[in-house]
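User: Protein folding is very new to me. Would you mind checking the protein record under this note? It all follows right here:
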Amino acid sequence: MNPQDIKVCILRAGGTNCDAETQRAFQELGTQAHTLQVSELIKHRNLLDYDVLVFPGGFSYGDYVRSGVIFARHLSAHLDKEIQSFIDEGRPILGICNGFQILVEYGLLPGFEGISPVPEAALTTNEPAGFKCKWVYLKQENQGRCLFTSSIPQGKVIRLPIAHGEGRLLFPKEKEETLLKRLVEEDMLVFRYCTKDGQPANGQYPTNPNGSFYDIAGICNPEGNIFGLMPHPERALYWWQQPNWTRQNQMLQYGDGKHIFQSIIDKLTKT
């Protein structure tokens, strides 16, 4: 498969944002990327026409009840069979910020035993509370399972922006250590918040901007084809999107966000 043959579906609903930037990122790297309203996909039931499914950021359905849950339930009610078939075929799914919240609410992440009928984790109110919009450092912890980070060496530190009020990843208190062990052993841990030189945040604000358990910023499912992260790679695609771009030598065309999109494109072009 060539990049121009890859078809990406970026799914939006009322309150979604960054869908245009996400589409631009995939198109910049040579793929066919289309933004669809969820009602269109439900009407035509053509999800399997696409190779990649993306849930972008935003505040779908106003984040009423809790972030991502209405979108997740809407999909489950109307597109459950199509999404199940998409997953059964091993096609990749990316969730960015609100998209990560949707994947968790749907039961697709962490997905220890496949699609869970109830959420296995939560992305809840930041600690300290409040909407956080800033650039953060992330350490790539994955050993190769995650399809969306395969071009990023393990241990590499990258920089991406966040923009969320509910990004604190939590597991049930009584299961925290057990599930963390599974994340690590099954290579499902992908990004952790860290210092500029890669040291763990250890839950300390502002390095860990939301109080997320074990500084977790992104995880994948056991198969590595479903990936969710709170930071926004589409907002760090170009070098000039970085906050300190005026102080840098303008030699690099792209920023760190490119790695996420390029990784999955490279994987698909090699199959």
Remarks:
- Helices lie at 19-28, 38-44, 69-88, 98-106, 176-185, 258-269.
